[in-house]
Write a structure and sequence with these properties.
alpha/beta, Rossmann fold, 6 helices, 31% helix, globular
Length: 186
């Protein structure tokens, strides 16, 4: 696995030792970031269910000002930290949090911190989409900047609805077995 473009282009990232974590493919990541390119400059990026951190690291490489990586596995958080350290990314440019994605968002809303410009969500289990997307839609004004984009990576046969409270799907991209659904606040 490698960083595809930007200031860390071509740099290798450590992968998990087992197949229980399935990193987003280089090809899908490249497609995703070609779409996000106009929105990345100085963006605050949230990588939920971050796994190896490859998606958030790609965002930092391409101009995001800050990335928050959330994964419930402490081992994966350690791997993310290793990848960030190997690229010598300033600790002020990222945060790595060991937490369940929904729990993190519930705590985040209570703290009323800065909002995110881009949220990337790739849950390991298909049945996790509904609860989190409804929560994001309900609390969008506390979590998302105006014009923010929420991207959900999911299996092509997993059907997501076009609307989750205030979040509306405006684009869907299928590639291989994966689909990227893009949402914005209405």
């Amino acid at each position: 696995m490698r960083v595809i473009a930007g200031k860390f282009r071509g740099r290798k990232l450590k992968s998990p030792p087992s197949l229980t974590t399935r990193p987003t493919s280089d090809r899908l990541r490249e497609t995703l970031f070609n779409i996000l390119a106009p929105h990345l400059a100085e963006a605050r990026f949230l990588d939920l269910c971050a796994g190896t951190g490859a998606v958030g690291i790609e965002a930092l490489s391409r101009g995001a000002s800050h990335a928050t990586f959330v994964d419930q596995s402490r081992k994966m958080c350690s791997l993310i930290a290793t990848n960030l350290n190997s690229l010598e990314i300033s600790p002020g440019d990222y945060e790595v949090i060991a937490a369940d994605a929904a729990d993190y968002l519930r705590r985040y809303v209570r703290k009323a911190e800065q909002r995110f410009d881009i949220v990337y969500y790739d849950p390991p289990y298909a049945n996790e989409h509904e609860v989190l997307l409804n929560f994001l839609g309900e609390h969008a004004s506390q979590i998302l900047e105006a014009g923010a984009i929420v991207i959900v990576e999911h299996y092509k046969k997993t059907l997501l609805t076009d609307r989750y409270r205030t979040l509306n799907r405006h684009r869907e991209l299928k590639q291989g077995d994966s689909t990227l659904s893009f949402y914005r606040v209405s």
